[in-house]
User: Which sequence fits this backbone?
């Protein structure tokens, strides 16, 4: 954005500063496994982005005629439901890809048969004990959302987004009252880490307070990813295109509020996700030692795996199919 455009941007958002905020809230109803079998051999936690599609897959994927996936939502009750295995009773509910990975590793190291996989919308190949394999199964796109009626542009470049999230005064004004409020979802969110990479900022700098205009709270509460109700006329927040599609169709709970998606680098957002400007693989994370062991191998591994054989359901939840579905080459060091 040129200097003159920066001035225009700032003038547009100045008009918004006197407007009232939209009513916002966070949190969704949770849908832990129910019905038979009560305890399923593949229990998983983690990403909010993929919980809907994994919940749906858990109802259709079977091995020898039995449902085998138990997918526990990122939000809901403080602990995962009593349907979980005995070793998981009272386990704090992990919210997000990072928290899911950490909890999976903790439980694997206990050797208690509590968890067998985690959901992840980001790739983290940092060293882990035991080793983990990130198995892709779908493709998502991520863009930014603004509230309906906002004067924030619906077309921005990655350079514009970098300027906004790095608190360039030409874009967001000066503190302590900023004209634009760039938002991030809660720490540990895979969408948060992917978006930071997309807009060219780092989590370390965010935590260190280098970007004072950026917030991950609203009304004293952490911002849950893909919840458009947190938006006010001055703000923008990253949003999964798959989640937006699934919410708009009623496939999952509609938390968009008045959110509308912006376009990045001139590429329309609501397209098949493989055509979005910022795309990412989404994963199920399994112990590397179990890649060749049933039921992990039956459900997750290879293009012929049970999950990879459900492209229509994956598309129903807004995701694009992944040409590398079931690939096991992404392993932790």
Assistant:
């Amino acid at each position: 954005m040129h200097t003159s455009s920066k001035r225009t941007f700032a003038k547009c958002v100045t008009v918004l500063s006197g407007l009232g905020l939209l009513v916002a809230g966070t949190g969704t109803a949770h849908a832990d496994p129910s019905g038979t079998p009560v305890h399923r051999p593949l229990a998983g936690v983690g990403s909010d982005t993929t919980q809907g599609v994994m919940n749906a897959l858990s109802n259709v994927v079977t091995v020898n005629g039995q449902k085998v996936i138990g997918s526990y939502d990122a939000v809901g009750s403080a602990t995962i439901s009593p349907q979980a295995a005995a070793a998981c009773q009272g386990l704090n509910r992990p919210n997000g890809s990072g928290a899911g990975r950490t909890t999976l590793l903790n439980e694997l190291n206990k050797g208690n048969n509590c968890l067998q996989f985690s959901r992840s919308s980001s790739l983290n190949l940092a060293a882990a004990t035991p080793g983990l394999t990130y198995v892709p199964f779908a493709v998502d796109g991520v863009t930014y959302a603004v509230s309906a009626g906002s004067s924030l542009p619906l077309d921005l470049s990655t350079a514009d987004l970098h300027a906004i999230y790095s608190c360039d005064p030409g874009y967001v004004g000066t503190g302590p009252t900023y004209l634009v409020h760039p938002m991030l979802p809660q720490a540990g969110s895979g969408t948060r880490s992917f978006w930071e990479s997309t807009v060219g900022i780092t989590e370390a700098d965010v935590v260190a307070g280098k970007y004072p205009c950026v917030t991950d709270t609203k009304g004293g509460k952490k911002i849950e990813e893909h919840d458009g109700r947190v938006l006010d006329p001055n703000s923008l927040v990253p949003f999964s295109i798959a989640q937006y599609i699934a919410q708009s169709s009623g496939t999952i709970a509609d938390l968009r509020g008045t959110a509308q998606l912006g376009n990045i680098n001139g590429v329309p957002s609501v397209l098949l996700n493989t055509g979005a400007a910022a795309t990412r693989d989404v994963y199920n994370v399994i112990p590397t030692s179990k890649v060749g062991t049933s039921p992990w191998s039956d459900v997750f591994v290879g293009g012929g795996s049970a999950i990879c054989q459900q492209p229509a359901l994956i598309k129903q939840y807004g995701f694009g199919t992944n040409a590398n579905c079931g690939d096991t080459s992404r392993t932790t060091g």
Summary: The chain has two domains: 3-16+140-275, 42-135+284-321. The radius of gyration is 20 Å. DSSP finds ten helices and 15 strands in the chain. Residues 42-135+284-321 form a domain with the D-Maltodextrin-Binding Protein; domain 2 fold (CATH 3.40.190).
